[in-house]
Amino acid sequence: MESSPSAILxxxxxxxxxxxxxxxxxxxxxxxxxxxxxxxxxxxxxxLRDMLGPKAKPSSIEKNQKxxxxxxxxxGSVWVSKVQFPEEGAEDEVxxxxxxxxxxxxxxxxxxxxxWTEPASRPLExxxxxxxxxxxxxxxxxPNLSEADKYANILKETTSRVTVLYFHxxxxxxxxxxxxxxxxxxxxxxxxxxxxxxxYRLAPQNPFPAALLDAFTAYLGLLYPPAGAPHAPVPASExxxxxxxxxxxxxxxxxxxxxxxxxxxxxxxxxxxDTASSKLPQVKWQGTNVPIPLPAGxxxxxxxxxxxxxxxxxxxxxxxxxxxxxxxxxxMSFIPDAAWPATPPRVDLYSEGSALLHPLVSPLMARDWSGxxxxxxxxxxxxLRDEDAVVAKRMHAQGVSVVWKEFEAMPHVFAAxxxxxxxxxxxxxEMAAFCRDVxxxxxxxxxxxxxxxxxxREKKEVGEITQLSDExxxxxxxxxxxxxxxxxxxxxxxxxxxx
Length: 499
Known about the structure:
ten-stranded mixed beta sheet; about 500 residues; single chain; alpha/beta; 15 helices; Rossmann fold
């Protein structure tokens, strides 16, 4: 998005009365958040809430995408090397493997008939990001370097074996890897590793499971680099899936996809070969059958795990967040354009209405996480808190190592926009420590509630971070889906901005 001083002034000048009112209320401790937030946080969250709420001026999908996917260029303490994986050939077993798992999970969950759009294969684009030391925020990347040269510079400054496969946020229809270089550069710096940031296909033009196919393709491309890729094969034991918001949903869905592929393989095979690779499922990738291992772990930042937005914190914690509530979005809409409404029509930007509760669309609905690698959650006291806590508790109950960090009074993906806070630095430090530990050592389950301002830590039990039962969650999400897909035969064909 345009971020020049003149553009920021044009945005903020009309809001001067609102800004002054907010500042005075905070200074006089008249705001209910003044005890938890500093003035900068108060202004940032409340201006965002005002911009994204029911008073927001309607816009079109294509205009939003044009604004939020503009490449800002490379500068500052990052190296960036762009890569592209070729499209799979006519056999395209990777695509068929994804579609088979989507179908199997639909059937295994015993839900009503679900439909989705089968995606085509396409070349995959991504960026390698690494930390660049010894420069200031305005230093441009050196001119006349090839992408291979840039990747070589990334490797020169890499000090650990961590490779982060990153999926950016943006509600599945906004943003781009290029707009996340400050985040992925910080992750590379903190971990000492490198980050592979994927340009997955955006909805509504490419609905579920197109982005999931891209995510799976990216993982295979790290494990088994296609011809022309700059990197050597990366062992699965050195790869951590990571993402924020909708990107957290995508990497969690990718994990559930891999678990389903493993479950299906274990059910259908009677192999007795003693080699480890023979016990893994395989897929034909770039003309060769290759094993599909699980990654070292997942590092999730405020993951969006329930596309119906149905659990209690969606409303009960809205006072700490800037996202619009479901009630606020009911009267919001998009200006029609070539991207939306879709043809044929559907109720949701990301998926068909019938698939809203599919466990690869809403990972909150996935019941089986057994065998998963360790998972790190960093969440605010935000609107998505309950869905994240339910999944973390369910994973823990099934033997998965879970690290839970909950930051008092912090909004959605707070570290990316409130970098001045000590909580933001703590978030990146804890996330990086997890990534290094799952690659280089071991992880044990733990949970902490981290106080605002003081950053005092309070130990918790992962099994006690939520009291919501699976039955309550299912009932709430079913009602949420029914409110989106009306049961009287009149589909709500005007999709609402969800996140």
